[in-house]
Amino acid sequence: MATMSLRPCGDFRTTYKQDTVIFDTRNSRWAMVLFLMALYVMVLIPVLAPGVEEAPVLSSLFAPFYNAQYLSLAIQACYWGIAALGLNILVGFTGQISLGHAAFFGIGAFGSAYLNNTYGIPVVLSIPLAGLIAAAVGLLFGSPAARIKGLYLAIATLAAQFIIEDLFIRLDWFTGGSYGSLANSIELFGVTFDTDQKFFLFALSLTIILFVLAANLMRSRDGRAFVAVRDHYLSAEVMGINLTKYRILSFGISSFYAGIGGALYGHYLGFVSAEGFTILLSIQFLGIIIIGGLGSVMGAMLGTIFMVLLPEVMAGGVDIIASTEWGNTPMITNGLAYFKEMAIGAAIILFLIFEPDGLAHRWRLIKAYWKLYPFSY
Amino acid sequence: MSEETAILDVQGVSLQFGGVRALSDVTFSVAKGELFAIIGPNGAGKTSMMNCISGRYTPTEGRVIFKGREVTGLKPNQRADLGIGRTFQNLALFGHMSVLDNIMVGRHHLLKNGFLRGALYWGLAQREELAHRRDVEDIIDFLEITHIRKAMAGTLPYGLRKRVELARAIALNPDLILLDEPMAGMNLEEKEDMARFIIDLNEEWGISVIMIEHDMGVVMDISHRVAVLDFGQKIAEGLPDEIMNNPRVKTAYLGEDDGGLVFTDDDEEVA
């Protein structure tokens, strides 16, 4: 029947356990493990054995991990990716829209800094606690979802975005008001994660853990319930799923992820200010999951990477245009500044038209093409 | 029907939408292990009756008693926990889930792992998932949909979707299953298969069945008892043979024979 299995011929499963794995084939699983291990090794080696990166061949290999810009992009991909995954659980899996994700992201950032600064809770603990605070606020602002859907829910979450944004300025004791608040570096077992390399290791580990948790959630009872609520809420209810519970729970889990992402962001920058959590960021998160693929765990990360790299690539393009003779035309020089923003908008539109299932689906198609080549079936 | 053996008691149920009276004072009872059919012309209130039993609608008056317990005010998910499963007249599968996951959703209320244990997917949660997977495979086997278990439900042809929906309802492990037109739009072969499945789940799995169906041949062949609704009222109830010969039922289906509908030459002229 119409199953798109990419398993090689003869790869039979003999237990149900084998049939419920996250990665469909052994190769894809090991490719992922190796990729992540390579990331760790590449970052760790220069830290553990300084000087290695200057050896003739290795220097070019390790260059990206010494390039501050690349590392900061990678870290950005981590904290955005975590938050985007949260939004994908809410929007992609449960089918509820949220325009207030940036606000929960902000709560995580301020919450972690607040817990650490005020109560002296170590940062490693304050990050998950900040996630819980964000989850609690998310449950509160998600409660309208029990009654309303679609556009009306979008407006309700929009209200949440503005209310929380306003509170960031007003709640001096929590956020430091318009001055913002300082966030300390992460410390664990006596190691301070103060450099970008070390911070990346921490962020990467957290990202892996949270992505694995989400993937597990989606193959167990409550993950299925989320998708059931999205696909057909009436029959989901008849199947014994408590709609109110799952609609609100989805907000809670989504905000938890946003909070963790935000906390990571705060401790990375070392300073949290209320300006960073506007509706634009909320929309950017929506853009990420649309580009990455709604309802796909991996898609959240692919979309994030796309969104992180897009401005960089565009900036490169702008530099090239500016260096040609067109670069002297006033109309173009003035317009170039907006090129990045326009590119994000254009990317979202193009994805909606040509690949509504996002990069995750495109990735599956590429794999299928590779496996089936030269036939298309 | 005596109280002890009745699995479902519908007592004087009325349902009103503003001025429209969808059901008025309908009373019937379904015995444990019975295959009960509800028939009636279009718009007679059959699906409304179904919705009152499954909890989609709350009756304006009357009571619904399931396994000796009043369920009138309960939500659909609470009734599912108690053991009422149903299928829909218009397909209501989860289109973007695989057939397997669709059926696993039916196990929802039997699974105990919440989102925390589910996210860890370790030990108990995993064992539980796999144990229920085994049960689901039995259902898949029974309904002969093994070949499509990994297919997306939304891509399946109509007849198979109906079958998956039945599988999902069985996965609830219900004591009573409500089938809303399980054979609508099927060809003869598919109807025969479906009829066989319904008889099997009734006889072998011991699930009581309430079925709405328009195909009189099937209804009269497989059901134990039949109730007839017309304009929201129950006009007859009894064994299939009795219903077939019931004058009120004939009237409901074929119209009244008051001599006025006989076409004569005069009528033609008037028209």
Explain this structure to me?
The complex is a heterodimer of chains A (377) and B (271). By secondary structure, chain A is mostly helical. Chain A has 2 domains: 25-66; 67-372, Orthogonal Bundle (ABC transporter involved in vitamin B12 uptake, BtuC). Helices cover 72% and strands 3% of the residues of chain A. Chain A is built from 16 helices and 4 strands. Chain A has helices spanning 26-48, 56-66, 68-93, 101-119, 123-142, 150-170, 172-175, 196-218, 221-231, 233-238, 243-269, 279-292, 297-323, 330-336, 339-354, 358-372; strands spanning 181-182, 186-188, 191-193, 271-272. In chain A, the strands form 2 sheets. A two-stranded antiparallel sheet of chain A has the order 1-4. In chain A, helix 3 (68-93) packs across helix 13, helix 4 packs across helix 5 (123-142) and helix 9 packs across helix 11 (243-269). With 271 residues, chain B is of the alpha/beta class. Chain B has 2 domains: 1-83 and 175-271, P-loop containing nucleotide triphosphate hydrolases (Rossmann fold); 87-173, P-loop containing nucleotide triphosphate hydrolases (Rossmann fold), CATH 3.40.50. Chain B is built from 11 helices and 10 strands. Chain B has helices spanning 46-54, 76-82, 99-106, 115-120, 124-142, 158-171, 188-203, 216-222, 240-244, 247-254, 265-270; strands at 6-17, 20-31, 35-39, 61-66, 69-70, 84-86, 176-180, 208-212, 225-230, 233-238. In chain B, strands 6-7-8-3-9-10 form a 6-stranded mixed beta sheet, with helices on both faces. Chain B has a 4-stranded antiparallel beta sheet with strand order 2-1-4-5, covered by helices on one side. In chain B, a hairpin with a 2-residue loop joins strand 4 and strand 5 (69-70). The interface between A and B is large, with 37 and 49 residues. Chain A: This is Branched-chain amino acid ABC transporter permease.
- Report the principal-axis shape of chain A: globular
Secondary-structure element string of chain A: HHHHHHHEEEHHHHEHHHHH
What does the radius of gyration of chain B come to? 21 Å
User: Briefly, what CATH class of the largest domain in chain B?
Assistant: Alpha Beta
* N- and C-termini, Cα separation of chain A: 12 Å
Q: Which descriptor suits the 3D outline of chain B?
A: globular
- For the secondary structure, the number of strands of chain A is 4
Largest sheet of chain A: 2 strands, antiparallel
